[in-house]
TrEMBL record:
GO terms for biological process: regulation of translational fidelity; tRNA processing. It comes from Nannocystis exedens. It catalyses: L-threonine + hydrogencarbonate + ATP = L-threonylcarbamoyladenylate + diphosphate + H2O. It comes from the Bacteria. It is an enzyme of class 2 (transferase). Its EC number is 2.7.7.87. L-threonine binds at T35, H67, R120, A140, S142, S180. It is found in: Cytoplasm. PANTHER family: SUA5, THREONYLCARBAMOYL-AMP SYNTHASE. GO terms for molecular function: ATP binding; double-stranded RNA binding; L-threonylcarbamoyladenylate synthase; tRNA binding. Keywords: ATP-binding, Cytoplasm, Nucleotide-binding, Nucleotidyltransferase, Transferase, tRNA processing. This is Threonylcarbamoyl-AMP synthase.
Length: 323
């Protein structure tokens, strides 16, 4: 079934009010957050949540993040809130998702049957206005077709979901550009399940100890179901190389993402990425989409140092390069 997708300005209160009404009736609204665009539906309405999975082609075993406007609304979705979770909530609004023990009100569709629920307060004025206007928690994964690079502009959302999403609220480019950091706060020592827009260094400022989920953990897949699936991948093959190595890899079907200037005589496309990691993160998914032109067969990416936001950037690049 196809719908006529409307594109409305995210800073128009009347448009936000109409979008909230679409959500209350069980519809799908894509909206800007500080991380990436989210594909929202009423998190407590299993049928509406089912529409998210259908629209994205998302595997049913990959649970959704529930967005709320205030900490009380998050607590109402949880059976209990462990002390470490309370401390981490002081970092909201922001690119931080907390996994909490799930309350009865949250349907299986939203959590993919897990007995935990992932929650966050987004730090974008339009997202908060929409959440307040609609008065419901909103399940909102990234508003892309499953497996594709995440959308950081309304045009990216339209390119992937035209005809399947009812409304797109256009709020321009997202400020952070990477998905939230996901932390399992049900454990005595909280554990980072997915690195993201809030660096681990920032978590350490509010909780003493924090574990990192390792790929070697035999239970990694069940702790972080999203790890199972292919992600962030353009159509072209993505190849990662060390900084300085892309210059020798030119060719008519090659595109490069590098923090260095284009070398003289280089054949192919050369995208200069920002030298600051914040700028790099913000530009990352747009660059992957932009370089994924029909004539490009290989996107060569020079890796970034794995400190601060660099960990999340490197994670997304590695997963974009997976086949
Ligand atoms: P996305 O919304 O596409 O950015 O993906 C949501 C991420 O949150 C995925 O990596 C999920 O595995 C993770 N997630 C959501 N809910 C849970 C949960 N209850 N337990 C563990 N991870 C979760
Ligand atoms: Mg996603």
């Amino acid at each position: 079934m196809t719908v006529k997708t409307a594109m409305w300005p995210a800073d128009d209160p009347a448009a936000v009010a109409r979008a909230a009404e679409v959500l209350r009736r069980g519809g799908l609204v894509a909206f800007p957050t500080e991380t990436v665009y989210g594909l929202g539906a009423d998190a407590l309405d299993a049928a509406a949540v089912g529409r998210i999975f259908a629209a994205k082609g998302r595997p049913a075993d990959n649970p959704l993040i529930v967005h709320v406007a205030a900490p009380e609304q998050a607590r109402a979705l949880a059976r209990s809130v462990p002390p470490a979770a309370e401390q981490l909530m002081s970092l909201w609004p922001g690119p931080l998702t907390l996994v909490l023990p799930r309350a009865e009100v949250v349907p299986d569709a939203t959590t993919a049957g897990q007995d935990t629920v992932a929650v966050r307060i987004p730090g974008h004025p339009a997202a908060l206005a929409l959440l307040r206007a609609c008065g419901r928690p909103l399940a909102a994964p990234s508003a892309n077709r499953s497996g594709r690079p995440s959308p950081t502009t309304a045009q990216h959302v339209l390119a992937d979901l035209d005809g399947v999403v009812d409304v797109i609220l256009d709020g321009g480019a997202c400020a952070v550009g990477l998905e939230s950091t996901v932390v399992d706060a049900t454990r005595p020592v909280p554990m980072v399940l997915r690195v993201g827009g809030l660096p681990v260094e920032a978590l350490r400022t509010v909780v003493g100890a924090i574990d990192m989920l390792s790929g070697q953990d035999p239970q990694a897949m069940s702790r972080s179901p999203g790890l199972r699936h292919r992600h962030y991948a353009p159509r072209a093959r993505v190849v990662l190389v060390a900084p300085g190595e892309a210059a020798a890899m030119g060719g008519p079907a090659v595109a490069v993402m590098s923090q260095q200037p284009r070398p003289p005589g280089f054949v192919g496309r050369w995208q200069v990425m920002p030298s600051a990691l914040e700028g790099y993160a913000q530009a990352l998914f747009a660059a992957l989409r932009e370089l994924d032109a029909p004539e490009v067969e290989t996107i060569v990416v020079e890796t970034v140092p794995e400190v601060g936001l660099g960990r999340a950037i490197a994670d997304r690049l590695r997963r974009a390069a997976e086949r």
